[in-house]
Design a protein that fits this description.
Layout (H helix, E strand, L loop, with lengths): L4 E6 L11 E10 L2 E9 L17 E7 L5 E10 L6 E3 L5 E5 L2 E10 L4 E8 L7 E2 L13 E4 L5 E5 L33 E4 L12 E2 L2 E2 L17 E8 L2 E7 L6 E6 L6 E8 L9 E6 L2 E8 L11 E6 L17
Parallel strand pairs: 15-19
Antiparallel strand pairs: 1-5, 2-3, 3-4, 4-5, 6-8, 7-8, 8-9, 9-10, 11-12, 12-13, 13-14, 16-17, 17-18, 18-19, 20-21, 21-22
The protein binds beta-L-arabinofuranose.
The site of beta-L-arabinofuranose (FUB) has 13 residues, from strand 2 and strand 16.
Length: 334
Amino acid sequence: MTNPVKSAKPAVPNEPIVTHIYTADPSAHVFEGKLYIYPSHDIDHDGPTNDNGDQYAMEDYHVLSLDDMNAACADHGEALHIRDVPWASQQMWAPDAAFKNDTYYLYFPARDKDGVFRIGAATGTSPAGPFKAEDNYIPGSYSIDPAVFVDQDERAYMYFGGLWGGQLEKWQTGEFKPDVTEGPDAAAPAIGPRVAELSDDMLTFKAEPVEIAILDEDGNPIAAGDEDRRYFEGPWMHKYNGLYYLSYSTGTTHKLVYAVSEHPQGPFTFKGTILTPVLGWTTHHSIVEFQGKWYLFYHDASLSGGVDHKRSVKFTELRYNADGTIRTIEYEAK
Ligand code: FUB
């Protein structure tokens, strides 16, 4: 393993935690007493920018860590490169990590050789990597943005899915339809994220993924045209006071929002906004408890002056109200 590169300055809330590389889509976890962050590694390029997400042309992952929230952030170097993923062709998008079976698992989406987004797994003995990819993607996986949640009973669930470049519209029938680009009519239920329980080996699904229902306060499905509340991409799961909080990006309206359930697979009831729109088109996050406080990890494009595909991971404290609702954080560009 290479020695980590440490930032020159201690981490500060709402400022990039590293500035020597562009990072995005942070998935934060506490492993071995430290906070580890699994981000996308954005690259600088002059390729096309479009709704298909071709500008997000990432090729590898770096793992970051913080000893505490005032420490300088460490970059542990390349943890996995696409050249070492036998089934993948391009675009290593938002990853996540989990620990079970004395093994660290890195989960990541990428396009397969046919251009279809799939979700792969890689394993390692350290939370900092490196990770060795499995030969094939997880059978039955599709779309993007895996978030893996290991519950107190040790059952593990993968939440995933993303519209537009993430191809979720193309899976509406349960099969991949390459020519489908439209979602449901505006008044019809929105396309939901998917959840699949993982097998004990953490490398396969126990059962086929199912669509998650997100309902309004009256128990009606959030409609596809309700772009302030409907699911777009970037799911995250955390548990607070025994309830399951599913949070996600609304994409076109650029918010991070959340919904709550008594069950890990829902149905979930929409609750509100976690973070108002950031600088840059995408917004993507994770929520983690560390050393007695809760934190929101997110990204924006401030370091690059607003270039959508050159983003930086930041964090801020997240607070709950007494009734378990999350206090909305107003984004401030810095
Ligand atoms: O980083 C590429 C894609 O942008 C992610 O997979 C989405 O969640 C969005 O952040």
